[in-house]
Amino acid sequence: MCGITGIWCFNEVGRFQMTNLEKSTRSLEHRGPDDHGTWNDHLVGLGHRRLSIIDTSDLGHQPMQILDGRYIMVFNGEIFNYQQLRKELESKGVRFESETDTEVIMHLYAQEGKACLSRLNGFFALAIYDTQKKTCLIARDRIGIKPLLYYQDEFKVLFASEMQAILAYGMDQKVDKDALHYYLQLNYTPAPLTMVEGVKKLMPGECIEIIDQEIRLSRYYHVDETRSPLTELSYEQAIKELKSRLDASVQKRMMADVPLGAFLSGGIDSSVISSLAARHTDHLSTFSIGFEGNKFFDETQYAEAVAKKIGSNHTTFRLSNDEIFSNLDDFVRHIDEPFADSSSLPVYILSKKTRRHVTVALSGDGADEIFSGYNKHAAWYEMENGGLKSLMIKLMLPMASRMPKSRSGFLANKMRQVMRYEEAKKLSPKDRYWFLASLGSAEQSNNLVREPSLDSEYFERWMTGMNEYKDINDLMKMDAAFVLPNDMLKKVDMMSMAAGLEVRVPFLDHELVEFVQRLPFEYKINGKMRKRILQDTYRDILPPELYRRPKKGFEMPLLDWLKSSLRGELDQYLFDQERIEDGGVFNWNQIKNLREKLHSSNPEDSHAHVWALYVFQKWHSRHF
């Protein structure tokens, strides 16, 4: 795992930014603390920071060159079938200097060009420059596990793993109002948008080819929609196949020349991954995080039960509010654009503490999106199929409309869910998806800002998958394409890389994802169970108490924090009329209304909106 950066200059004006290549590379030091390097010729420059995982010798130094310097590459990621590809290349007479997957990719590219991307099983962001043909290939992995940003004008193309490495080249900065519009609805900025105008994210499965002064953006990977659903596969056969595929995925991702462990939250997903990993080593280390004095958000007892059953060397990090808040400024320093998934702060702390023990950690990310793990999946199923839950929700509506609603308590959260269910049920599949994926409406977003966005292009592009909605499988495919790379995977990459920790996600082997997506939706969800096939497949190896607990995400006691410990921070950065009006971004009257809602007896989702605005203000004050 590493950080990469590069510049392609179209002319001498663009070359003025070449002097910032070293500065850009240094800005990625946290992603690769073990080694660094740069290379440049007259018009092309590449930079790399290395976190050594496979072949930790100097032979893995990047930018790497092969074939007498014809090909030069920077690479961030891991390729899990590289040994198989290496043997294939060796049979064709290729000789290798190192044991790295980087060198395998380069020789594969030398033989197959851009088509080599479809041969890679793993996660990556990479750039390969052909000094003879004067071409460059820049690519991001299929699922979007690794990030890659780029910027283009008439003088140059810039690319990097993170925003600060792009900004280090000295470009002007301006908030992208379309990105801000969607951030205020979603709490994150979906690709291809970024919060800095002109800087874009490569979409998962996209690549850029630079040939002379021509830029070609294309998609090298699509989930194959033409393949028929696996309806001929019985449920029992599907369980057997899933068991084989997931075990193989975990085993591949345990390949490392450095210490490896696993995140263990106590949920089904991380428990499955940790249990399978424990079969392939005699000394698995597992790590979980808990919150002192807040049992509603603490799940460490389940993690410890799993650790005991699988015999792992388990460490629980118990965090006080003071410790969490002491990391707040560091957290903001490491987010390359506003990002308001509140669980990202404890993920950062977990990653820092885990890094003291291991260099690589397995995680259970991705299972919710592909197997149907979210509350919205259960709600959607009820909307389409009816049943006892729908009847109960109907009976609860009069009470829910009068009761306080928020995410910070069991009853208040249930009332919130009842009201959202009733509103979502009335919408078309496309509008319903957006409603359930977002925390606020477009109208609320535009009311908050001084310069509203009228964009609909991005919304229509993102929601294409719901235009011909057939069944709940399409909902899960949307989550895998939209929520997963833009929220969950970005959070894990950003926070783990801030600590120099590589995180691997066995559920997101692309062949496994394709298999699960082709299964009938009834195998994943019914009126009684979410993640049905995943839970049934591993029921015999997990503690029974995991199946008796309610589903909870990795959420934080955000409402309590904002009303107490973080009140001073809010008064400084957000609830300061002069600061807001001088900033020129937000409308003070709307901010004031949110403050009143936050401190009312019925806060609803106001704390999520306040947190998003606070994170934006902290980020904005740092970068602008």
UniProtKB/TrEMBL annotation:
UniProtKB keywords: ATP-binding, Glutamine amidotransferase, Ligase, Nucleotide-binding
EC number: 6.3.5.4
Enzymatic class: ligase
Domain of life: Bacteria
Reactions catalysed: L-aspartate + L-glutamine + ATP + H2O = L-asparagine + L-glutamate + AMP + diphosphate + H(+)
CDD domains documented for this protein: Asn_synthase_B_C, AsnB
Protein known as: asparagine synthase (glutamine-hydrolyzing)
Native source organism of the sequence: Reichenbachiella ulvae
